[in-house]
Design goal:
With 74 residues, the chain is an all-alpha fold. 82% of the residues lie in helices and 0% in strands. Helix 1 crosses helix 3 and helix 2 packs across helix 3.
Length: 74
């Protein structure tokens, strides 16, 4: 677990405001997917939009996270 926190600290250190904004969008989309309290007629449309935003941001965030893990520690 300590190693995971170390990776997270290095990731945050190498991140800028854009990366942190993507994390917020990713979490927001995941929240919509988890607790959809939208009328039935709009639920499917909102779900697809939230899923697309989540997938796009998650892929970009994880790509950067894995590149940070792959770097040698300084």
């Amino acid at each position: 677990m300590k190693k995971l926190f170390c990776y997270a600290d290095r990731y945050i250190g190498k991140s800028d405001w854009k990366d942190l904004a993507m994390i917020k969008f990713c979490l927001f989309s995941m929240g919509i997917l988890a607790g959809m309290r939208i009328p039935e007629k709009n639920k499917k449309h909102a779900g697809w939009i939230a899923a697309a935003v989540f997938a796009a941001t998650y892929i970009l965030l994880m790509a950067k996270f894995f590149s940070v893990i792959a770097e040698k520690e300084e």
